Amino acid sequence: MEKISSTKNTKVKEWVKLKTNNGRKKYRKFLLEGRHPVETALEQGADYEYLIIQEGFDLGELAERIDEERLILVTKEVANHIADTVHDQGIFMIGVIDEQVWQIPNDFSGKWLLLDNVQDPGNIGTMVRTADAAGFTGVVFGDGTADFYNPKILRSMQGSQYHLQLKRLNLKKWINSNKANGNAIFGSILDENALDYHQVEAPENFSLIMGNEGNGMSKELISLTDANLYIPIKGSAESLNVAVAAGVLIFGLID
User: Domain 2-97 falls in which CATH fold?
Assistant: First the structure.
């Protein structure tokens, strides 16, 4: 087993860069942190380069699933250096990014959630988990939306990323390809003149777009949908959090 004790080590320098979008793009790898996320990744057969543990970490049952040739032991100083959290759990995985995330699928059937310039990791993770719970086929991260290999988003998704197809694609191209296949496209906007989602009977195959937390969907995408949906507000609140709104619409459309 290799042991690393210096933060100046070449591997360590690369791992730290994986906390940035540019680093992940360059190396086509990502950093996963914490016992539960790593356990889930191993259970799901995720492709990885290294499993990193801090000195004194008890692998327990994980030891049976690990390829020892890819196991690296690090000091507490190194673990703290590569960690994305304040209090790391002493275990990390260097995962390999699946190149298919940038490829349009051959089959557009099913129900898809599209994220247009959504930024907050907590909101994104909640929406991915909600789509998973509702039996959606996948989630498409459009231009401007945060990277789903961001360590915070990986933790927030809590394993749902292994139950869905996650894609990083241009939403305009996605919409045009889906329309060519006869699939419906629904937008979501804060406008009482839009269509009350209660009035919609969604088909078997559709995409639902959720927009930016502050500005909503882009005007270009609004103009490309088959219908833009609105959630009636009964009380005095001006709007709903985007993840809450997504939950209402997701389950409303499949009900």
Answer: 60s Ribosomal Protein L30; Chain: A; (3.30.1330)
